[in-house]
Amino acid sequence: MRLPDALGDLTYSTLVHAGDTWPEMRESLETFVPQVKARVSPDRPFGVSLRISGDSARTLSEDAAERRRLKEWLDAQGLYVYTVNAFPQGAFKNRVVMEDVYEPDWSTDARAEYTCRVADVLAEITPDGVVPSIQTMPLAYKPKVTSEEYVQAFTRNVLDVAAHLVDLERRTGRRVVLAIEPEPFCYLETIAETVEYFDTRLFSGAASRHLARRAGLPLSEAPAALRRHLGIVLDMGHQCVEFDDLTASLDLLADHGVPIFKLQAAAALWVPTVGEREVAELERFTDTIYLSQTTQRAQDGTLQRFLNLSDAIAAWRADPRDDVEWRTHFHVPVFMDAIGPFRTTRPMIEDALRAHVATRQSAHLEIETYTWDVLPAHLKTGDVVDYVSRELEFVRDVVTRGAGSPQEGGRA
């Protein structure tokens, strides 16, 4: 939905639904999205964040009739696509995913080719006046990046995709942007790391020369073209798990001219004080098909990172201590401020949204609680449409009221 006062488009990520193939994604779109629209935007157009997997990208890019059918269906339903999740290229639902979610990474031609196909589809199915964003993974799983050559490989592929986007705009008049999403345990993890990478790699003189050659641009135009087409997704949950201060992160990105093409509201589990009761209760969250990266902060500010919540629990049981807090990458509904004995990072989300109201941070806002289907059973008091609708209402209320907590909220 389009928020008032140029506050941007707001929707939810259809990554929450089945969508590993195009028939699955189409069925999910047709089943769930109209129901959500009827709840939160019955009389106005409603934006869609479309998951396009590698399989779906091939189907849509090769089938002009299917692209027309999709666009006609969207128009008939009062829907419009303004962003795509192209982070998981492979299967994401109903199987153990873990670090496979990062494959193929940006060092491969397969990732670049897939992203170009998604861009081509977007240029055709999105309405005039929309600058669609492609959400992509944070370059590589960090333990794999063991050489400068690896970094050069994925940087070169990102710049080649940027050249494709420049050419796409030249040919079609449609601008599509690529938004890289930092995430714990990836090459781009913290906002400080992300800013450094953009400064030294993507927005460097060498990057401008590469883009100018690949896109046939005058060198004088290349720096602006890079910033026009390359930026980030700021996932609030990811950065809270990193103990990044969200408002300071927004300022840092602005100071360095790194565009936020999508501002993503996602809440993580927060355990302010770790103890036996909390650890025992947390074990209910370890039976998941996704990574649950967890960061431990001691009272002296020292951080220790674990790939999964189960790893953090095992380390704590081997050396119990009462001077640490945990934040874990388990997406929970953004309207909840507490879940049993745990907090959530909802207060940090509210701070970031207020910063967005004060200074428009992004044209695209999105909620991404893709873990609804694997939430512990005791947290499921409604269906996915109920949860998604409440999340959209919550974020809409925080943003449009401009300050304070909305009436929606709660505990579980």
UniProtKB/TrEMBL annotation:
Origin species: Kineococcus rhizosphaerae
Protein name (Swiss-Prot/TrEMBL): Xylose isomerase-like TIM barrel protein
SUPFAM superfamilies, A to Z: Xylose isomerase-like
